[in-house]
Amino acid sequence: MTREALAEELAGQPEGLFTEYVRRWKESGGKVIGYSCLIAPVELVEAAGLLPYRIKALGSAVTELADAEMSLYNCSYCRSCLQLGLDGTYSFLDGVIETNGCDHMRAMFENWMHRVDPPFFHYLKAPHYLRDDALEYFLGGLELLKRDLEEHFGSEVTDGALERAMEERARVRELWRDLCRLRELDLPTVSGSEALALEIRGSAMLSSDYASLLEDFIRERERAEGRKPLARLMFCGPATDEVAWFAELEAMGAAVVADALCFGTRAFLPEPPPGDDPLRRLAEGYLGNLFCPRMYLEYGRRRDLILQTARRARVNGVVYLYNKFCDLHGVDSALLRRDLEREGIPVLVLEKEYSARADLGRVKTRVQAFLERIGGEAAWKGASS
Amino acid sequence: MGDGEKADKAEKERRRIKSTEAMRELMTRYYVDAKTAGERGVKVAWITSGGPVEPLWCFDVIPVYPENHGAMCGAAHMAVELAEKAEERGFSRDICSYARCDFGSAYTGGGPIGGLPRPDFLVCCNNICNTVVKWYEELARYFQVPLFIFDTPFVRGGLKEHAAAYVLRQMEEYFAFLEGATGKEMDEARFLEVAARSLEAISLWKDILSCAENVPSPMTCFDAFILMAPVVTLRGTEGVISFYRGLLEEMRRRVEEGIAIIPGERLRLLWDNIPIWYEMRNLGRLFMEERACLVADTYTNAWTFDRVDVSRPMESLAEAYASVYLNIDLESMLEQVVALAGRFKVDGMIMHSNRSCKPYSLGQFDLARMFTERTGLPALIIEADHTDSRVYDRSDVETRIRHFLDLLA
């Protein structure tokens, strides 16, 4: 991905959802399946010969049509996504997989099904535990999804095809880790907004092509000269694809050197374990490594992962951002702030409306105050000496 | 007191639901029992309102409901100060106010009954929302007690076989958890006994609610919101059965004698969502003035599940708990709402878009539209919060309700 292409992504607009890549895929007769939550295994969709497309809103704040379906107490990101389904922006999708990622997202899909009535609609039920019975239940859900994809699109999902798709996705995961290493350098050569832009673009591509995109990008950045940021931050939170918003915050001088975001590193944590049965491996990999507050009794794991990442990336502070009315992140953020600050890591919790550009001034002021509080470079030197 | 005043007073007394006193006694006894349980070596579990309570009674554990307590705090106008205690600890104002109120009460022991008794363990079922799980995880951390989570799959178009198996398996795990938490073995005969009593309570509750099908109605759903406390908290016990028998008898007598709860009833309405607890009195007065009777609601009907098959109690209870109103798809919800409208002969529906209860409020716009398409009846959506009065605009809501009622009349 060239700097120019990345700049395009950074200035992402809703019309950019129907990317050149997707257009070409459709023109060659390919079908596109929309999904939203990370619990939906893209490998299964790819093994059925389909293009998995992660539904997003690219910072679109218009919700007029969606507001007639969902209340203002519902997550504004979900309303923005629904808007784009209702206004026809997503008419290129040949099907949609609903998941019970969270109450808002599930309801968004309920409305989507009612109003948009996509040609293919499947509800993939995902449990909230990692236990034997939950695994069997999730595996049953994946079998139903596989069967429905096969029946509707007339393509058999063989074990071989699934194994291949899993290998390709594994390559993407590996490359993402390489990308993270470049972000975590003392002089980072990849910014947080660039990483976010890559995931936004990559989550509308086949894994093999996403891998090529990452390879090219990493090759270019491995040779690049990094810049010392004013402060090193880690961002945590749910699905947010507001690249321009991220870029504006980074322009204040801080670099997002690590993240635990849904359109970021968390998308690469579900990793199937070794084994014989590919579908079972998928079920185990996804259910066991989601690191999302939707999962029950896993707060400790999430906290430890964030703590470990924050230390490895030598961050000066953590910013936990989430959209208003999100009870899952609303509770998790309060606990994380308490626990991370106890460990000496300052935390800023930013509760906001999705893509509220009018709110950017307030947010920037808060981030600026946070940067002053944590002292950036000087504070880190002090802490490590 | 003049003759007119005396007659008014007598008429009010005639219309008053007398069983309310018995309920107050029953609930006071229950809370006293719960608050003194530790002294008697009896265990207390906090449980979500949609959670399977029968197994707790089967193991002689007293269930306590933070949501019921939240409603009490709301009605007593004490919820805001408790919620602020949670907000002081970093919890957002946009999180469910029941949760914030409960955190505040747990941290401070505040509330109309001086807080809830400390739990020995917690049981959380996500058939009503996923917020409850975050809420209970925090309680488990705060009290340092075990937590059992009952994960019910969202049901679209009927419970699929593998989903039913998952729910049943969890019911079995729930019993195993209780064996560990109480040190007692499961007694199947006892479970059947409790389940049968629970079913009887549910059946009586259904019959009581059905009395409002009569014109004029002997009760409003605002009465039902209060009178539902025993079926939520005490189903499975003997006390609740005798109470509801008495209440049913009273309701039937009122029907026979033509005692209307709203004198001169001219409109009949359906209510959707949790009550606005702190505003019950004012809204009650408004509906009384307008001679509009809220004859049915989707909330109290949540405790009327009728799919329980006594020949397979464990399986059918598991299935019933998975298929509650808040855990089913929009079409199925619509079917239930339309059925209620028909049975109770309503003129329209008022939907409370509840800032706190996201799952209840999700889909309400679609539901309202589909309801009108199916029944030809109008629906009004008002905005509030079940216990956080800071977000309530009384004049706006009352004006909208009055306009809506004018339209219906």
Features:
heterodimer, A: 385 residues, alpha/beta, Rossmann fold, 4-stranded parallel beta sheet, 15 helices, disordered C terminus, B: 409 residues, 54% helix
CATH class of chain B: Alpha Beta
Query: What kind of assembly state do the chains in view correspond to?
Result: heterodimer
Shape category of chain A: globular
What value does the average pLDDT of chain A take?
90
Name the chain pair with the biggest interface and residue counts per chain: A-B, 48 and 46 residues
Strand portion of chain A? 5-15%
Unreliable spans of chain A: 378-385
Structural class of chain A: alpha/beta
Instruction: Determine the fraction of residues in helical runs of chain A and give it as a percent range.
Output: 40-55%
Number of helices of chain A: 15
Proportion of strand residues of chain B = 5-15%
The ordered string of helix (H) and strand (E) elements of chain B is: HHEHEHHHEHEHHHHHEHEHHEHHEH
CATH architecture of chain B: 3-Layer(aba) Sandwich
Large-scale geometry of chain B: globular
Strand segment tally of chain B: 8
Total number of strands of chain A: 8
Number of helices of chain B: 18
Residues in helices of chain B, as a percent range: 40-55%
Just name the CATH architecture of the domain at 12-160 in chain A: 3-Layer(aba) Sandwich
